[in-house]
Design a protein that fits this description.
It is a single chain. The protein is mainly alpha-helical. The protein has seven helices and no strands.
Length: 172
């Protein structure tokens, strides 16, 4: 069975649960199927023996928040889902930053790191500063773009979570 087919099968099982909002799922099926499929793939990768070293116990907090976010979404609690997703993003950024710092120290490229307070924009600045001496910006442009996109998504999530807009944020 192909991964996509397995994800579809599991999605059908999932929407049969009592607590999910079936009307909400039906009205947003395309978007919700996509969300479920992404989580299914991340979970599949996370549980493989050969990827365990990348998804260590520090990643468990991020994944737990992702699951809580998706469950809130499937029960129609869109703002709660986005708040949890923002928390997952913060936890993931912390996880990635600490992992990257470990690797930089192992390579002896930089050992003078500022303490982190894990406010997202401050962490972003410190992370960007940390990698400047280790990762060539011209050679690894996509890496730097990914860091910038992370901040952009965080700002979007913060804006939606804190706004009074009545539009369902799931469409974002």
């Amino acid at each position: 069975m192909v991964l996509n087919e397995k994800a579809q099968t599991e999605f059908v099982k999932f929407i049969e649960l009592v607590d999910v909002k079936k009307e909400f799922i039906f009205n947003n099926k395309k978007e919700l199927t996509k969300v479920f499929s992404y989580l299914f793939v991340v979970n599949s990768l996370r549980n493989r023996v050969e990827t365990k070293r990348f998804f260590n116990t520090e990643f468990n907090m991020t994944f737990s928040l992702l699951l809580e976010s998706s469950f809130a979404l499937f029960t129609g609690q869109c703002r709660s889902a986005l708040l949890m997703l923002r928390s997952a993003q913060e936890a993931n950024f912390k996880f990635v930053l600490e992992r990257e710092r470990e690797l930089m120290i192992m390579e002896k490229t930089s050992e003078n790191f500022e303490d982190l307070d894990y406010r997202f924009s401050e962490t972003y600045k410190k992370f960007s500063k940390d990698i400047k001496g280790c990762v060539d910006e011209n050679r690894y442009q996509e890496y730097y773009k990914t860091i910038d996109r992370n901040l952009t998504f965080y700002k979007k999530l913060s804006g939606v979570v804190h706004s009074g807009v009545k539009v369902l944020p799931v469409l974002i």
